[in-house]
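Morning. Coffee machine broken again, so started the prediction first thing and wrote up yesterday's gels while waiting. Chain of 333 residues, entered below exactly as on the submission form.
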Amino acid sequence: MNKSNSQLLFVKKTRTYPLHIRIGSLFSLLILLTGLVIGGFSYMSARNAAVEAADAAMTRSSGQMISAINQLYLPMDTLVGLLSHHQIINAVSLDQRLANLPFFKEAMLHNQQISAVYVGYDNGEFFLVRHLRRDEARKASKAPVDAAYLVQSIENGKAGKTEGRYLFYNNDLKLIRSDLRPDYTFDPRTRPWFKQASQNSSGEITHTDPYLFFTTREIGQTFARRSDNTGSIVAADLTLQDLSENLARQKVTSSTELALFDLKGRTLGYKDSSRLIGPNDTDGKPTLNYIGEIGVPILSRAFSDLALVGLIGQSHKIIDSGREWYVRIQPLH
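Came back before lunch.
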């Protein structure tokens, strides 16, 4: 019996489209591709424009900040320079020094950032005028309610014993109360501002590193200069709280973060001044927090990624916690 092989034939019908549909589809694809290219180009152009605008804003705000810092520092330099030639440096008694009280008042009224102006004499005597606008100063000195100014004086009494005194004045410089303070044994010659200015042979104004103020227990900087004809040192104080309040007024946008720090990374100014103060050292004095310790991650990143490697003076983009930041570190001279 013969076997025959069977085969099945499958035929698939191919559908053809009219020419005008093919041409239309091709043009639609080209239009889509063109739209994507134009959209991508527009996006990149808009992004570049946004980056340039952000960089311009950073440059502008940086200039504004430098100007703001100068407005704090330059008047203090000017005042200290004038005091180094003032008659107060030759005064030898409390009465002679108090005769200059109106000058001190006027100086502080025109420079609200100055918390105290004073003179340290080479014999260990001391004369200071403080504006009592801050609660810290009022509490530390136990000031009367209507006191506006405090004079702190140290004179050498008989038998080499020093006499410390607090004198409280109202806004019209009328004496309210005079307190003899036997426990006030402050010697200006032991303080960093006195030593630093005394050792400056050029006679230039010196700026101390931030330290704990003796009376108010605030942290700040002192601007000091040696007088030309005597061994007296004239000085003025700026607290970090004053510096921080100035930074808080310089916000460019609602999310702007501004901080002032030194080469060691210690934070000198931030809008929330309470974050500046760290734990006490072994002597019981408060320390300054480093910029990575104030609880603002982007500032910590900026310091570690930019400042430590010398990327300063230009804007840089940093992605932190899913947010895009434009950061600029500007040196202050």
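Residues 196 and 206 are 7 Å apart (CA to CA). Going to sketch it on the whiteboard this afternoon.
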